[in-house]
Design goal:
- This protein has about 250 residues and is of the alpha+beta class.
- The chain folds into two domains: about 10-70, no CATH class; about 75-240, Trna Endonuclease, Chain: A, domain 1 (3-Layer(aba) Sandwich).
- About 35% of the residues lie in helices and about 25% in strands.
- It has six helices and twelve strands.
- It has helices at about 10-20, 40-45, 75-90, 135-150, 185-210, 215-225; strands at about 25-30, 35-40, 60, 65-70, 95, 100, 110-115, 120-125, 150-155, 160-170, 230-235, 240.
- Strands 5, 6, 7, 8, 9, 10, 11 and 12 form an eight-stranded mixed beta sheet that branches. Strands 1-2 form a two-stranded antiparallel sheet. A two-stranded antiparallel ribbon has the order 3-4.
- A hairpin with a 5-residue loop joins strand 7 (about 110-115) and strand 8 (about 120-125).
- Helix 4 (about 135-150) crosses helix 5 and helix 5 runs antiparallel to helix 6 (about 215-225).
- The longest helix is centred in the last third of the chain and has 25 residues, at about 185-210.
Length: about 250
């Protein structure tokens, strides 16, 4: 990410990581035999003004011996961090849960907060595991409410208005830690369309109850038809944008 347009970017990155490991700012952790993971040490965290634990993750013993496993939320956190870094290439500033404050701790917060060049915040939802219908409806309703009434969020760099929402989906064929195939896109699109249809019907019924004209009744539903959200999916190369969520009426 530091050298996005340089053909030697991987070589430079490997050298930088090797130096940081040598300086004991990072620890190398093996992961599933195919990829490795670099974790900040306490000394490394102090260099960037944060906190870290060298015991991050857990050590387990099985028939194959002793091995290290990442935290249960690893895939979710990795996807959120990777997406934030990916979007920084296009001028967005990514912030994560430890980097922003949002009043009461019991309020929902995004998995990643993006701020565009105009200073507007974008709420990012990362899909990583099975989700029941009630939780999905709550997510969708939150996105629709923010579209009409942006939510103010305080960050260490100032207050931003969060209006738009992005859903980040795992790669096609991806399975969660329990072996379940995860692809929320069909349910997400159905839920989005159903939620907007309900808001449009309520708006029309309210206008009809108030004895509005046909033009006024139609106008009452128009704001809901403009509500959209973005969908991105992780790929081997990074992320690709899918068709946005919109009203299908």
């Amino acid at each position: 990410m530091l050298w996005p347009d340089d053909s030697n970017a991987r070589k430079y990155a490997e050298r930088l990581l090797a130096r940081l490991v040598k300086d004991r700012a990072l620890l190398r952790r093996p992961l599933d035999g195919k990829r490795g993971l670099f974790v900040l040490t306490k000394a490394g965290a102090l260099e960037v003004g944060g906190r870290a634990q060298t015991a991050w993750g857990r050590q387990v013993k099985d028939d194959y011996g002793s091995r290290w496993l990442p935290p249960i939320t690893f895939d979710h956190d990795r996807r959120a961090a990777w997406f934030g870094c990916w979007m920084s290439r296009f001028g967005y500033r990514p912030y994560f849960e430890r980097e922003y404050r949002d009043g009461a701790s019991d309020r929902a917060v995004p998995d990643c907060l993006l701020v565009d060049v105009a200073g507007e915040g974008i709420w990012v939802e990362v899909e990583n595991s099975q989700k029941n219908a009630a939780d999905r409806e709550e997510q969708i309703e939150g996105a629709i409410r923010r579209f009409h009434k942006p939510r103010k969020m305080d960050t260490a760099w100032g207050t931003v208005a969060v209006r738009r929402t992005i859903w980040v989906l795992p790669p096609h064929g991806w399975k969660d830690s329990r072996g379940y195939l995860i692809d929320h896109e069909p349910a997400l699109r159905r839920g989005w369309s159903a939620a907007l249809a309900a808001h449009i019907n309520i708006a029309k019924e309210g206008a009809e109850f108030g004895r509005k004209s046909v033009a006024e009744i139609s106008a009452a539903s128009e704001p809901w038809k403009s509500v959209t959200a973005s969908v991105w999916r992780e790929t081997e190369a990074g992320f690709e944008k899918s068709e946005p969520l919109r009203c299908n009426l």
